[in-house]
Amino acid sequence: MPVAGGEFFFNDMKELFVESPRKSAMLVGSRIFYRPLRFLELVITGVADLNEYNAFKDRDSDGVPNLIDLYPRDKNLATDMDKISLTDWNHLLNDPFWGATREEAYQKLLSLGLVPADTIRMENLFNLNNQSSKMFAYGFDIGIPIARKHNFKFVFTPI
Fold it and tell me: Could you give phi then psi for residue 88, rounded to 5 degrees?
């Protein structure tokens, strides 16, 4: 006798209700099957992650994921360049003492270890608070069930 059925699942539903600067989302999926014969099963599966970036942790809530945040416990810093104000940075590079051009000044300061090699600032990094990415996956498969639940008996014994 033909049998049909389906399943629905979701994960991270709390993301819909927790106040956060990130875009709320969750992981949802569905599986629909049809068994025209006892030994044959046709299945369609669909899954959607409505914001993949919610998996990244951000301890200080500055929007920069801990994986790339050099200072994950300080909301005001994410890179070494964030320690240097733009005014000070421009003053250093424009000072003729360090070099005739900004590039020469930077290379001289870098060789002395006075400036970081990476000049990216927090505002130029990936920010979780204004980014989102949705991912969808669909599948179709044909299977032969090898185990049926009525053939198994699970017994729970408390210790």
Answer: -65, -40
